[in-house]
Amino acid sequence: MKKLKMDNCKPINTPLNVDSSYQSMIKEKKVDPTFFKSLVESLRYLTCTRSDVLYVVGLVSRYIVAQTNTHLKTAKRIFRYIKGTINFS
To answer: Using an 8 Å Cβ cutoff, are 84 and 11 in contact?
Structure first.
């Protein structure tokens, strides 16, 4: 959370927006590949203890080579979900 400067972000109840299409988006703005890869690696590490995000992290990981702004927003949404469910057992 500190890495993304999302310490004060608004938590959400679901890790994935089902209305979005996550296919390769040619016309969308590309994001910094180094930052995105680092972010996805952090999410992959979390899947060891948080199996509820395993599917959506796998979905975001598919686009590690051709990442767009939509993929970055999805990765940030996962962190917002984790923040909202951090106290759940």
So the answer is: yes
Question: Would residue 37 count as lying in a domain?
Answer: yes
Question: Do 81 and 15 meet the contact criterion of CB atoms below 8 Å apart?
Answer: yes
Q: What's the CA gap between 5 and 54, in Å, rounded?
A: 23
Residue 24 domain flag: no
Q: Which two tokens stand for residue 50?
A: 């948080």
pLDDT digits (tens, 9 = 90+) for 19-56: 666 555 567 788 888 988 988 998 999 888 888 889 99
Cα distance between residue 37 and residue 21, in whole Å: 20
Is residue 13, in this structure, part of any structural domain at all?
A: no
Total number of domains in the chain: 1
Report if residue 27 sits inside a domain.
Answer: no
Sign of CA dihedral 74, 79, 85, 89: positive
